[in-house]
């Protein structure tokens, strides 16, 4: 990457082509691991579409590879180049349990703070590295990250054009997110696009599980909660909602097909973008 880096961002090459990784320090002193993939070549006239993934340590590599591969065959996929951003943590664990709970759950000093950091600090900083189209950015998350994507849509629908809620933890706090959903559906303006996904085996596993695990699965209702919310939202004029259930996939294995579908959903039609003149 030859562009000067904004203050607070330190990057080095990632193993993937046209990708970098490094540190980012927020204004409140919190440090994050930043992963970014920038297409090789001129940007569209409007700037690049953006895919932003929370739990970036776990999701970035797959999403960046899927975006790059789909953009290689635009005539077949309809997908054009995009900037892919993953937000992770310095621990470099796939999922940092303590920090993701603080950042992703709608609790005091939690999801709202993290969301404001993303749109107020991180995206403007990356916009100084690569031109981004503010009207075409997608927020993608899995599990607690899926709940975070729903919270962002229901409370700040103007921030992202599209949201992908993979296996969202709707069960959290006795389904407290449903109150936000109801208030959102009563609102007036449209909220863009939403994709909700789930693995069929998240609620109905094809192997025997112990009684304690079975009780947790039954209480979480991962598939039914997701499908019921998608049905309600699809009937609402507030958002164009799609639902995808992946047969044979559990709460972990579903991440790969979810991300492939998320890329196609978020970047549909971007192959028609006009490239800026040199």
From TrEMBL:
Belongs to the esterase D family. It comes from the Bacteria. GO terms for molecular function: hydrolase activity, acting on ester bonds. PANTHER family: SIDEROPHORE TRIACETYLFUSARININE C ESTERASE, SIDEROPHORE-DEGRADING ESTERASE (EUROFUNG). Gene3D superfamilies: alpha/beta hydrolase (3.40.50.1820). This is Esterase. Keywords: Hydrolase. Pfam families: Esterase.
